[in-house]
């Protein structure tokens, strides 16, 4: 692997049993569908690779493989030069804290009874258990300021915030451990266009401030145009086109990319 690569994936594959396969049982030969079908990917430090494709093309599955939230059927992943799929125990924990995820709905998987301080502080509690409560509170307050929320957000609860503010809290939770890689999976698709634009601008500023590398997932080419340095177009588990963002946007080589570009841009409701 070259020194200049933060994340490298080779020939990644993941298939799932289809509904018919589940019915037939997990025997050999049961019908399976490839969600990720031989993906190769290189991510240089500081760049933003956008992965774009229609619903069901395998974007989220690929993201989960790259963070090793699920195990691939085949392939290799290296992160910071380390074999991610071979990592165990303390090494795996150390690698995991360097890669964090921002979700479309940051609270879908979190306990709504947790206040913002507890939510944003939770990764610290897990990965830096020796921190005093006061230091943890300081770190949480600081990262909330960084994402444009005051420390006065700390005792409040998710339902008290707007969608855009909630996404800022989700970003604070992802950044509190100072990761190197952030995977943002449809970070603005639940938001109005103007609010989404503010979140994208925030992500751009944070990238500069913290030297972050981004994997930005979206079904919309216009959404990623502002941030992406490179774009990978995904269809049915495969990358059909990968290139420098300006080239892909100005001169799409694949008919599927042209179709994505021609799709009606989102308008505010
Ligand atoms: N846990 C799972 N079990 C079975 N099938 C799955 C599972 N996760 C994903 N799939 C299937 O894999 C394919 C790719 O799904 P994935 O969620 O990765 O697509 P996506 O590009 O993220 O779509 P979207 O834009 O809707 O989020 C789909 O056919 C999906 O039904
Ligand atoms: Mg998805």
Short description:
The protein is α/β, with parallel strands linked by helices.
Explain what the structure shows:
- The chain has 269 residues and is of the alpha/beta class.
- Helix content is 37%, strand content 24%.
- The chain has helices spanning 19-24, 59-66, 89-97, 116-127, 133-146, 163-175, 193-210, 221-225, 245-250, 255-262; strands spanning 7-17, 32-43, 48-52, 74-79, 82-83, 99-102, 181-185, 213-218, 230-235, 238-244.
- The strands form two sheets. Strands 6-7-8-3-9-10 form a six-stranded mixed sheet. Strands 2-1-4-5 form a four-stranded antiparallel sheet.
- The longest helix is centred in the C-terminal third of the chain and has 18 residues, at 193-210.
- The relative contact order is 0.16.
- Magnesium ion binds next to helix 2.
- How many domains? The number is 2
Note the total helix count. Answer: 10
Approximate helicity band: 25-40%
Mean pLDDT: 92
